[in-house]
Design brief:
Blueprint lengths: L19 H19 L11 H11 L4 H23 L3 H15 L4 H27 L3 H13 L10 H12 L5
Helix pairs in contact: 1-2, 1-3, 2-3, 3-4, 4-6, 5-6, 5-7, 6-7
Length: 179
């Protein structure tokens, strides 16, 4: 279930220059997107998901408040999922959610974009610290599991930490060989 399940209002009246059939099409896209979002069809199935419907509405009516509100609600759901994936050590899932947030971020409201940048900065530090801790503990398996996510962010490592060296040392020491 979505953490932001209230549908965005789809009663936005389009700009005065927009022809009525086009305005109607935008309202239909938003209504479909709202229903898909509430049903947790955020990015799938291809061709019939909330993200594609909201983005199509924004292509026809840039800045449409109902479509932007829907994108904001999707981002809230994705960010919540990102936190859950991180806490469950599902790093591949977290990376996928991060990419989905990136895809929608530029279409969100100013406040949602700000919240996204703030969360991403904090997350980059958390991931960087986790890689540093795993390297310090010589946990090569965890370093390797975190590396794709750390690279995708990119992670923000503690001062003086060298990820490449730490990764080599963790792998070498885990194998039982001294440097």
């Amino acid at each position: 279930a979505s953490t932001a399940s209230a549908p965005a209002s789809s009663t936005h009246s389009a700009t005065p220059a927009m022809p009525a059939p086009l305005a109607g099409r935008v309202q239909i896209l938003i209504a479909q997107a709202d229903a898909l979002r509430v049903g947790d069809h955020l990015f799938s199935p291809p061709g019939d998901n909330a993200a594609e419907q909201y983005l199509a509405a924004l292509t026809l009516d840039p800045g449409n408040p109902a479509a932007v509100a829907g994108i904001d609600a999707m981002l809230a759901t994705l960010r919540h999922g990102l936190d859950n994936a991180w806490h469950a050590d599902k790093f591949t899932q977290a990376m996928g959610l991060l990419k989905q947030c990136d895809l929608l971020g530029n279409h969100a409201s100013t406040s949602a974009r700000h919240d996204g940048r703030k969360q991403r900065t904090a997350f980059a530090k958390t991931v960087g610290n986790s890689v540093a801790t795993a390297a310090h503990d010589h946990d090569a398996k965890r370093v390797a599991a975190l590396k794709p996510l750390a690279d995708a962010l990119p992670a923000s490592y503690p001062a003086g930490f060298d990820a490449a060296t730490a990764e080599r040392e963790a792998a070498t020491l885990a194998a039982g060989t001294l440097l």
